[in-house]
């Protein structure tokens, strides 16, 4: 499949098999992620890889507890409150691998650069038969000093993306039709 087909057919995956994603595959995805363009060639990214099922579950439980206790600070998650209250719901959807992407704030462009790396990882993952999904639920917990210290993330790095990776449990549905792009000016 060529890159245009990949872009047109890529979907977020929220249901996975139990099959592990090998360390070699994860490292290859990250290497491909770091082929992304960067401002001033800064390459400000850093990664945390979590494949331990117990840690993933514990992290999900911590995230759910935190969000429910602080829902007024995160009104955009109100629509998911019933999910967060469900003890069987995992914010990581049963994925066997979580990749957390951080950017070094010494670079003015770290958010853009790391987002481009995340996009590369998502597209490359589909080449390996893997599914991915950017997990917004994790944005607070994965950026805390405690989480960063536990995972050896330097203080100057800030969370950009938390992504799940695994082998899809279902056949991907056709992507929904997108709204036309808003073009504000063309000459």
TrEMBL record:
Keyword hit for Oxidoreductase: yes
Keyword Membrane: no
Superkingdom, natural source: Bacteria
Domain (Nitroreductase): residue spans on this chain: 7-167
InterPro entries named among the record's database cross-references: Nitroreductase, Nitroreductase-like
A Pfam family it matches: Nitroreductase
Keywords for the protein's UniProt record, in alphabetical order: Oxidoreductase
Family the entry assigns: Belongs to the nitroreductase family.
Name of the protein described by the UniProt record: Nitroreductase
Species of origin: Clostridium moutaii
């Amino acid at each position: 499949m060529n890159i245009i087909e990949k872009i047109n057919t890529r979907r977020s995956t929220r249901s996975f098999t139990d099959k592990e994603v090998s360390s070699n595959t994860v490292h290859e995805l990250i290497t491909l992620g770091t082929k992304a363009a960067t401002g001033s060639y800064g390459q400000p990214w850093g990664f945390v890889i979590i494949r331990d099922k117990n840690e993933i579950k514990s992290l999900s439980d911590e995230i759910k507890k935190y969000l429910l206790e602080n829902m007024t600070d995160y009104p955009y998650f109100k629509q998911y409150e019933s999910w967060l209250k469900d003890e069987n719901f995992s914010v990581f959807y049963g994925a066997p691998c979580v990749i957390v992407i951080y950017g070094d704030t010494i670079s003015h462009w770290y958010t853009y650069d790391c987002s481009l790396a995340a996009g590369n990882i998502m597209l490359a993952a589909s080449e390996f038969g893997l599914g991915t999904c950017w997990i917004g639920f994790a944005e607070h917990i994965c950026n805390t000093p405690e989480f960063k210290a536990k995972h050896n993330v330097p203080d100057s790095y800030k969370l950009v993306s938390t992504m799940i990776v695994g082998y899809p449990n279902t056949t991907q549905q056709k992507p929904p039709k997108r709204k036309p792009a808003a073009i504000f000016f063309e000459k």
